[in-house]
Amino acid sequence: MSAPTTGTRRPAAEALITMRHGAGGRAMRRLIEETLAQGLTDMPVDGVGLAAMDDGAALRVGDRWLIVTTDSHVVHPVFFPGGDIGRLAVAGTVNDLAMMGATEPLGLTSAVIIEEGFRRADLERIQKSMAATCRDAGVPIVTGDTKVMGRGELDGIVINTTGVALTDTVIRDAGLRPGDRLIVTGTIGDHGIALMVKRHNLSLDGELRSDVAPINRLIRAALDAAPGAVTAMKDPTRGGVSSAVHEMAEKSGVQVVLHEPALPITDVVRAASDMLGLDPLHIANEGKALLGVRPDAADRVLAALHAHPLGRHAAVVGACTGDHPGRVVLDTGIGRRLVAEPDGEPLPRIC
Length: 351
Ligand code: MG
Description:
Blueprint lengths: L25 H11 L10 E2 L8 E5 L2 E10 L5 E2 L2 E2 H15 L5 E11 L4 H18 L3 E9 L7 E11 L13 E4 L5 H10 L16 H10 L4 E5 L5 H13 L2 E5 L7 H10 L13 E4 L4 H9 L8 E7 L6 E4 L4 E3 L13
Parallel strand pairs: 6-7, 11-14
Antiparallel strand pairs: 1-2, 2-3, 3-8, 4-5, 6-8, 9-12, 9-13, 10-12, 11-13, 14-15
């Protein structure tokens, strides 16, 4: 008797969760679609729910929208050049709210799980950093939770933050239209490369620092510069610009042509990427956004970004076309090639 064949049987390698499933790319998206979201996406939601797999949810409250987003932070090491897990935990959630158009967060929650034996001084340093980042973003932490697990049951500390905000206009990651320009708000690859260099103890000329920062005020300036002209937003975190642009192009049904010479990349990130054999397009950022903008407003939005300290290196890096929906192409200035969608971030525990 032959073994029954089913269309849903998965290869043995898929029976266990691997680090790839947390890397922010295709593997993670499949895990969410095939397992974590099962039985949940057909329940009615008045607004943007889980099925949209956007940066957060948008729930109708009267004539406004309540934006909700949540993020757990497992970064290793907890202190890294340019930031730490506390700054990351606040900025990550504030930025996901901003990506939905909600730039004035009402409040954050903070749930902290600590391993027995964690240094009190390190916890105090992380807490101070969270408080300072909250002031940067203009958001209070309004409630929280504290748990301790036994030695070896958890690696150091995990911080989850949830954020809520109201907005009149929701901006999606699926709103790109043919003709839109794609703007990145600054240099790419800084966060992931800074962590990688720290973990591998590489020595390089030039300063490598994570870009981790709350960018809600930067985004507000961009939105106010050209009301209604920003069609889509996404922050290129795990999987980098490549992952985020693929998701935006696929959901929006457009092709995105990236202009390689326009991509803002620092010399030190370029040098470290070459040394590590990595493409900065695939590397995580924690203080950047991708904005789809109507072509006639691109200059105004760019000028507003340039006027803010966190947007000095913003650039128009691409354009959308109506053919080949979902495709991402890199124009090198000499020729064109397809950009492959990364399976996820090459380095685990990046955020
Ligand atoms: Mg996001």
